[in-house]
Write a structure and sequence with these properties.
alpha+beta; 6-stranded antiparallel sheet; 16 strands
């Protein structure tokens, strides 16, 4: 195998790391507050932002660094919580949520979560809903841009307890009827977004709840080990190249 081919193979083996992520955990009490070192989410990260107000500015990322990202929430008027959620960080994430409407009826409105000043060129958005845990018969839609996903079951649907990472279930349903078939899904993903801002609209005819949101950069960034391997490989290539030139110019 030629040296440049070997170098490329080694770099490929070292891999590329995804960029950082920004996690928002909706909570207003100690039971659902994630500690900085706590790791949670489908894309596991630490340094979650614990948000219990309708606005938050300069959110931190998964490294604990301050970003320019801001959040504004409209029509989600309070924080719901089970009072549990101390067993695992993932359970803490999923047992409290921004809430609007009422289980007795009278919801029927859209809550909007607007994120702005996002610096990631391309990113995925993960949206977590605890309805399958508490009100499995209630359905809600989550819309970003022109894409809408549905979560929720139907009358008589069984609640789905949540204890840890193995209990995350994604919904890819784009209709109410499809959501029933995917119950008890508890999160959706909007992939390949770009732009400095996006608005997420969540609608339920009765009761709406969103437990958290992750903005995950998908622009590949070389890991430190990759850079080191690349530099070492380039050094070897330069050394071999010099030796070949020296042999070619040496007197016979």
């Amino acid at each position: 195998m030629k040296l440049p081919t070997i170098l490329l193979s080694l770099i490929s083996a070292a891999g590329l790391a995804h960029g950082q992520s920004i996690g928002i955990n909706f909570t207003n009490n100690v039971g659902g507050t994630l500690a900085p070192a706590a790791s949670a989410g489908v894309v596991a990260q630490s340094n979650w932002n614990n948000v219990g107000a309708t606005t938050a500015t300069d959110l931190i990322d998964s490294l604990g660094s301050t970003t320019t990202v801001d959040l504004a929430v409209s029509n989600a008027f309070n924080i719901w919580g089970t009072g549990a959620g101390t067993a695992t960080p993932d359970e803490q994430l999923m047992t409290q949520a921004f809430q609007w409407g009422s289980a007795a009826g009278g919801g029927g409105r859209v809550a909007t979560f607007t994120f702005s000043q996002i610096a990631y060129p391309t990113y995925d958005v993960y949206v977590y809903s605890p309805l399958a845990i508490s009100y499995p018969a209630i359905q809600q839609s989550v819309k970003v841009g022109s894409t809408t996903y549905w979560l929720g079951g139907t009358a008589g649907a069984a609640a789905a307890p949540f204890a840890g990472p193995g209990d995350y279930r994604q919904s890819t349903a784009t209709t109410r009827s499809a959501a029933v078939l995917q119950h008890p899904a508890n999160y959706v993903v909007f992939s390949g977004l770009s732009g400095a801002s996006f608005a997420m609209q969540v609608e339920s005819a009765i009761l709406g709840r969103i437990a958290g949101v992750q903005i995950v950069s998908v622009s590949p960034v070389p890991e430190p080990g990759t850079w080191a391997l690349m530099l070492a490989g380039l050094g070897v290539v330069a050394f071999v190249s010099r030796r070949k030139k020296a042999k070619a110019t040496a007197p016979a």
